Amino acid sequence: MSQNRSSGASNSPNNGQRSEIAPGSAGRQTNPIHPGALGPQDGRHPGVLRDASLSRNPGANRLLSGVDMASVPLDQDAYYVVSTPCFSRVVNIITHHVLFSHELYRFFMYRLLKHFLWSEMDMLRIFSNWILPIDTHRLLQLVQEPSGLGMPQICLGYLFSEEIYGNDVDVPLYYFNIVQGWGNSVKVVITPSKSGAAGAAYYQAARGYSTVAIFAICQRALRRCREANLAFSFKRAHNVTEANEFLDQDPVRVGLIF
To answer: Which end of the chain is more exposed for a tag (fewer CB within 10 A), N or C?
Structure first.
C-alpha cells in the first residue's frame, strides 16, 4: 500500500504542541500525544450541537464509512464529517504515528490482554463497558456512559499502513480500540480486522466518542500462549513481522503493535 495519499482535508492548527521523540524511534514519524490520550477528554464540550460543529467546518470532507478513512493521508491532523442515519458530526482524524502514554495504559492494556489471552470471557465483557480506573491494579469499576463530545477525535495513526499492520491475510491480527468520551472512563472494542477497527472508530465518533488509541496483536498469540501454558510476557512490536517473530521465541512474547 502506498504511503502517499491524496488529500482534500483542511489541516488543523498544531496549538503550539511540541513533538516528542521516544527512545528507539529515530527515523520514524512521531507526533505529540494528543489531548485525551493521557487523561480526561475535555477539549471539546459535550454540549456543542452537531449542527454547530458542521457549520464551523463547512469545508470538511465527508467520509461515508470506516473504510473510507484509508483515504486520509498519513501524517495529517484534519477534519472530516462522519455520519450514520442518526448522527452526523465533524471529527478530528489524526494519522500521525501518535505516541500514547505506555505508562498510563500499561496496567490497563496488560490486564485486558491477559484476560483476552486466557479467554476469560466474563472479564472481557467488563472491558466492553465503560470502566474506571485504567492505570492501577485496583478493581475495575463499571461507570455510567459518559456524555459524547461535540468534536471527537480518531487517533487512527498508521492503521492502514501495510508496512506496520500488514494486510490482515498473511498474519491476521486482533485490533483493540480504546474509546473515551467526556471524562476519563474508557471502554474497549475488539475486532479481527483493520476494516473492523476503522468501522468501530467511525461509529463511535459519529456518536460523539473519541478513539484515543488503537493497537493490535497477532491472532495466533492465543494458540501460542496456550501452548506455553499461559507463560508469556508483553513487548512493543514496531510492525507485524516483528510481532509474529516474538511468538516463536522462548519464552513467548506477545508483541503489541501501535
So the answer is: N
Structural domains in the chain (count): 1
CB atoms within 10 A of CB 83: 18
Residues 6+ apart with CB under 8 A from 190: 116, 124, 128, 174, 175, 176, 177
Grid coordinates in use for 66? 470506516
CA dihedral (257, 82, 32, 28) in degrees, to 10, reads 50
Model pLDDT for residues 44-102, shown as the tens digit of each residue: 443 333 444 544 555 578 999 999 999 999 999 999 999 888 888 999 999 998 666 66
Q: What kind and span of H or E run contains 216?
A: strand 210-218
pLDDT digits (tens, 9 = 90+) for 163-194: 999 999 999 999 999 999 998 899 999 999 99
Is 191 a member of any domain?
yes
The answer to whether the CB of 110 falls within 8 A of the CB of 253 is no
- Residue 177, domain member (yes or no): yes
Alpha helices in 118-256 (DSSP H): 121-127, 162-165, 194-206, 221-227, 240-246
